[in-house]
Design a protein that fits this description.
219 residues; 3 domains; 7 helices; 20% strand; two-stranded antiparallel sheet; alpha+beta
């Protein structure tokens, strides 16, 4: 118990030391090897001395020059080794890289865009892109647009009656399912589509899995 108390006392015990850079007195834990005070330690990382300190509102700091805009700004000593820019805008601008002026394909507005992000069709905002997509601007929609799997349902209902081709059930048209005869979802021709109720749709897939003869589709 006495040994534990002694070890705890030694851990919390501090000793006086003189800073090797400014000569000021500071305290450090017993056995520590640091020879710089907490003010001079961060200054050595950026090549500054205590003579460069600028006191502002009772706090010590440094006057740094922003490499992006050239403005002189004040920064606390503890953050001086990590902070380079006067604001977030300058920090973002430094990472922006080389830019080029382009024209919005929807509204015609001129705006800046990084060279690495240049595309054939550019938009100044998401709103312009959404409006251009809904209006069907040339070159924006891919070649397969309009051939989505949801459109085959409209195709089938446009060519056939809204009832099951096998049993004739038509009480709830919203429940009817459009089945691909050759099981190729990319084949959206009306000849490859047939309207079925959920039960008959299950029966057809059961016949396919068990190599049973299929019911010929209506024509």
């Amino acid at each position: 118990m006495l040994e534990l108390w002694y070890n705890t006392l030694m851990e919390n015990k501090r000793e006086k030391q003189w800073c090797s850079l400014c000569g000021g007195k500071f305290t450090r834990p017993v056995g520590a090897k640091n020879t710089l005070c907490r003010v001079c330690a961060p200054l050595t990382k950026i090549g500054k001395t205590k003579a460069d300190l600028v006191v502002k509102e009772g706090r010590s700091g440094l006057n740094l020059i922003c490499p992006q805009c050239g403005v002189t700004f004040w920064c606390r000593v503890r953050y001086a080794s990590r902070r380079k820019y006067c604001s977030r805008q300058c920090s973002w601008a430094s990472r922006k890289g080389e830019t080029q002026t382009v024209i919005c394909a929807h509204c015609g507005k001129h705006f800046e865009r990084r060279i690495c992000r240049l595309r054939e069709i550019m938009f100044c905002s998401r709103a312009c892109k959404d409006n251009a997509w809904s209006e069907g601007i040339a070159g924006l929609r891919p070649a397969h647009y309009g051939a989505h799997r949801k459109n085959y349902r409209r195709t089938a209902f446009r060519h056939y009656d809204r009832k099951c081709a096998d049993c004739g059930w038509d009480e709830i048209p919203q429940v009817l399912i459009v089945h691909h005869i050759d099981r190729q979802r990319s084949n959206l021709s009306p000849e490859n589509l047939v309207i079925l109720c959920p039960t008959c749709h299950k029966v057809r897939h059961h016949r396919i899995r068990n190599d049973l003869p299929q019911v010929p589709p209506p024509r």
